[in-house]
Write a structure and sequence with these properties.
By secondary structure, this protein is α/β, with parallel strands linked by helices. It contains 13 helices and 13 strands. It has 2 domains: 148 residues, 3-Layer(aba) Sandwich (Rossmann fold); 191 residues, 3-Layer(aba) Sandwich (Rossmann fold), CATH 3.40.50.300. A 7-stranded mixed β-sheet has the order 2-3-4-1-5-6-7. The longest helix is centred in the C-terminal third of the chain and has 18 residues. Bound molecules: guanosine-5'-triphosphate and magnesium ion.
Amino acid sequence: MSHNKISVMILGNMKSLKKALITNILGKDLSVLTKKKILKNTEIYDDDTFEFTCTPDLSTTCDDIRELFSKNPNFDLCLLVVEDGFSTGNVQKQIKDLNKKTGKPREELTVVLPLRYKFTEYPFKFYTLEQVFSKLSKLLKDKQLMPTNRKKRKRPADTAEPQDGSKKKEKLTSTKVNLVLLGLAGTGKSASGNTILRKKHFVSKPSSNPVTTECQVEETEINDLHVRVIDTPDMFDDDTEPSVQEKYVKRCKELCESELCVFVLVMHVSRFTDGERDILKKLENTFGTKVKEQTVILFTRGDDLEEADMTLEDFLHSCQPGLKEIIEKCDNRCVLFENRSSSSDQVEKLMNTVSVVLKKTAKIQ
Ligand SMILES: Nc1nc2c(ncn2[C@@H]2O[C@H](COP(=O)(O)OP(=O)(O)OP(=O)(O)O)[C@@H](O)[C@H]2O)c(=O)[nH]1
Ligand SMILES: [Mg+2]
């Protein structure tokens, strides 16, 4: 595997789909490329920047995939191509089997949705084709493989997004969004803000008293979105003086300016408290009745779940009815954070969910 190229492993059950994806990304017919065979059933296609490893179909008993990962597990991206009409259960099984076979963490295996599929909730990490392009561009930038005068990669017509995809992208990239971190004291709002910003901007520490006592905004760029992260004190504590609560709310709304807002309701997986039981009602009273359509629930302390050998799905499955109701009212938009880890995957998942909300509320689509 070449270290000065972006290395992408393409997994899946249909050779034609895997090859079509490579063709789309490279913008070249694969027959013009020299195909290298490194293992009996594995082909490599490359150009000056990318190296694609096209693996044998998952349904075969061939052991190439295991061997590829054991020789070099550090692919920049592992994409699992699925066919139109796929069953979620089957895909989950494929991911589970791959994880067992290769040791590759499930969250590092990303499903590429077929063209007509749009954002929705899936119990696995996924990209639309558009997101695959955006991820590859980011990798190119990160690896500094893209000289500033490099011609923009032209996408062949057959890779076009459904309807007016390119126009939508343009709109999205110029979008500013406020991520407003809300929740009870100590749930990890500030820590999550720092994870999103990839920098310790907000004070976050263990304390029996509320730590954040002023709203604060910090800004960053994520996947071409201009993101304003707004950290807040606990605005919903019944013990806080109403005048102080009002001050917090007023300041938070001022900081939101006129930009689109996605409310990130921060809770931790270890406790669901009485104060959280009616939190959606409180959110509605404060930010209006449409707030739940713009809310993503962010669970912190993913490390606690991991220690208990549980996935987010396990946790959601067995959680209290009161919490289930809140989650359902927010259209099941949940993400899991482990703020002790710097993994960018969790932020990416959050941003995917934020995009879903943006597309709905701002009618970008
Ligand atoms: N283990 C673990 N600890 C976390 C995680 N997220 C936050 N914490 C810890 O929880 C404590 C509280 O986190 P904060 O970010 O200060 O919580 P907050 O919601 O901003 O609290 P207030 O500002 O008081 O409202 C800190 O000690 C964090 O390090 C996590 O994902 N895992
Ligand atoms: Mg805080």
